[in-house]
Amino acid sequence: MYTEDFEYYRADSVDDAIALLDEHDGSELLAGAQGILTRMKTGEESPPALVDIGHLEGLSAVETDGGTLSVGALATHTELADSQA
Question: Any idea where the FAD-binding PCMH-type domain is (predicted)?
């Protein structure tokens, strides 16, 4: 059970996520949910809103360009290990 009520928003894009974070002061990003939801259940954190970005395309990309490796914020260990980059 969560200790406080909160709003949930599913971002349609990275720009939408940024706008939602700006609009809802103190909101937190939700991606894998392994950390924030646990801390909310124990009362350690109580953000007024969660902005879900876990489904957004492109945030889990693993790519190389000109010798530079780029790892997306939502890339998993498996995606990184399986990457040809």
Answer: 1-85
Is the pTM here over 0.70, yes or no? yes
Closest Cα partner for 23 from 40, 2, 7? Answer: 7
Convert the pLDDT of each residue in 5-52 to its tens digit.
Answer: 899 999 999 999 999 999 999 999 998 767 888 888 888 999 999 999
**Which domains are delineated in the chain?**
1-54 (3.30.43.10), 57-85 (no CATH)
Give burial (CB, 10 Å; 0-12/13-18/19+) of 80: middle
Question: Residue 36, CB half-sphere, CA atoms under 13 Å: how many?
Answer: 17
